[in-house]
From TrEMBL:
InterPro entries: CAT-like_dom_sf (IPR023213), Plant_Fungal_Acyltransferase (IPR050317). The keyword Plastid does not apply. The keyword Transferase applies. GO terms for molecular function: acyltransferase activity, transferring groups other than amino-acyl groups. It comes from Musa acuminata subsp. malaccensis (Wild banana). This is (wild Malaysian banana) hypothetical protein. PANTHER family: FATTY ALCOHOL:CAFFEOYL-COA ACYLTRANSFERASE (PTHR31642:SF310), TRICHOTHECENE 3-O-ACETYLTRANSFERASE (PTHR31642). Keywords: Acyltransferase, Transferase. Belongs to the plant acyltransferase family.
């Protein structure tokens, strides 16, 4: 299975809670294709083994107010800018396919991304606070093809500026090669609009996505792209023959002796836990108080704390092995480093393993130390070994009894500007897997020094987690 994710969720702005039993009604227009404005390179486009493991559809939304500048032209401006920016990001205008080697590849046909305009008969404030995944409401703000359950049934890029009818565009399309990007722009009754974006994660990671969206915004404002994309992914080709020089526990299967499958049969509950700077400081002090560690980062301390709290909330058996996975940005860790603007996945999954009994029976410093050791292992040789491991085995990371943390707290999606100012809030439509937790920036405007921890758990476990997350 391909389970890693790319998510944009930056908390910001003060938007009221939606009224009870509010149902968002959106009328979508007929989808159209937006090709690059100019002729672009054609042919097959290589995707590295870092791209292969994370081919999941990621759906995100960006909310913009229209104060001095109305939203009547929002869809037109965003669509025109998309055609221009796709000249530079031309693989997004192509079609995903499976190569003769059984790996993902992009056929750069230049056909274009899918764009949809939509209208909502309500105020944008009625959508409410989107800092928690809400697929029933937010799903209407991102265009998708009904029944598209696997990565080859979705385009690479889809944009929605908000409207939707059954799609005739793909009825006769060859489903062996499909689109990776959908976009939708939804306008609201008294102003404001929401940009919905659905992208296949194999096209880029969080940093790459941020650079693409910000480049798109710069183009819409008539500015040159500040970070042009580096599109040649062959710099991350695997070695021939493959050389696996490290054990790669991220792929290890774990026996579910705690029967978490039955537990996850309950209704899921979602919650965002806010860690302000003062609370983050307490977590770090707790991790260092027994003297086992000389220092630790905020990420290391918070990851260890959340891993332990979630393990206890799920009531895993003492002998249950549990794994923590997280992504490390490998751009500067490769030798030589990846070029600036690398258009692709430059992050590497790494992780650590413990029994639940040892994790909970020892101080927080034990879990934090495991995270530190995992971070240190991510060297150029380790990353190339992991890519070669996939080349030789085609294995996917296992998520049984696993927590996967995705960190977006350092990515500046909140600065995206298409000419209507920065988004008042942005976020994911839903979490892709029950094992995933998001670390998101928190704070007003650009002073985002806190972290929101966003996760879903079975309702009984979530009730227990409330107290366990305090420190």
């Amino acid at each position: 299975r391909a389970e890693t994710i790319l998510f944009v969720c930056v908390c910001g702005g003060q938007i009221p809670e939606p009224r009870e039993k509010f149902e968002l009604c959106v009328e979508q227009g007929e989808p159209t294709l937006v090709p690059p404005e100019e002729e672009t390179a054609k042919g097959l486009y290589f995707l590295s083994n870092l791209d292969q493991n994370i081919a999941v559809i990621v759906r995100t939304v960006y909310c913009f107010r229209s104060q001095e500048k109305g939203n009547e032209e929002a869809a037109q401006v965003i669509k025109a800018a998309l055609a221009k920016v796709l000249v530079h990001y031309y693989p997004l205008a192509g079609r995903l396919a499976i190569s003769d080697e059984g790996k993902l590849i992009v056929d750069c046909t230049g056909e274009g991304a899918v764009f949809v305009k939509a209208e909502a008969d309500c105020e944008m404030e009625d959508v409410g606070d989107i800092t928690k995944p809400n697929p029933d409401t937010l799903g209407k703000l991102v265009y998708t093809i009904l029944g598209a359950n696997n990565l080859l049934e979705m385009p690479p890029l889809v944009v929605q500026v908000r409207n939707s009818h059954p799609c005739s565009l793909f009825r006769s399309y060859n489903h062996r090669k499909l689109i990776a990007c959908f976009l939708q722009v939804t306008t609201f009754r008294s102003g404001g609009f929401i940009l919905g974006l659905a992208v296949n994660h194999c096209m880029f990671d969080g940093l790459g996505a941020m650079e693409f969206v910000n480049s798109w915004g710069e183009t819409a404002r008539g500015l040159p792209i500040s970070v042009p994309p580096f599109v040649d992914r062959t710099v991350l080709e695997s070695r021939n023959p493959p050389l696996v020089s490290f054990p790669h526990h991220e792929f290890a299967e774990i026996e579910d002796v705690s029967d978490t499958t039955a537990l996850y049969g309950e209704e899921m509950a979602y919650r965002s836990f806010c860690f302000e700077p003062e609370k983050l400081g307490r977590v770090k002090r707790r991790a260092l108080e027994d003297g086992a560690l000389a220092k630790c980062t905020t990420f290391e301390a918070l990851s260890g704390h959340v891993w332990r709290a979630r393990t206890e909330a799920l009531r895993l058996q003492p002998g249950q092995k549990t794994k923590l996975l997280f992504a490390v940005d490998g751009r500067s860790r490769f030798d030589p480093p990846l070029p600036q603007g690398y258009f692709g996945n430059g992050t590497m999954l790494t992780g650590c393993l413990s029994t639940a009994g040892e994790l909970l029976g020892r101080p927080l410093s034990f879990a934090v130390g495991l995270v530190q050791d995992a971070v240190k292992t991510v060297t150029d040789e380790y990353m190339r070994s992991a890519m070669d491991y996939f080349e030789a085995t085609r294995a996917r990371p296992s998520l049984t009894a696993t927590l996967l943390i995705t960190t977006w707290s350092r990515l500046s999606f909140h600065t995206t500007d298409f000419g209507w100012g920065e988004p008042v809030q942005s976020g994911p439509v839903t979490l892709p897997e029950k094992e995933v937790i998001l670390f998101l920036s928190h704070g007003k405007e650009r002073k985002r020094k806190g972290i929101n921890v966003l996760l879903g758990l079975p309702s009984s476990a979530m009730a227990r987690l409330q107290d366990l997350m305090e420190i």
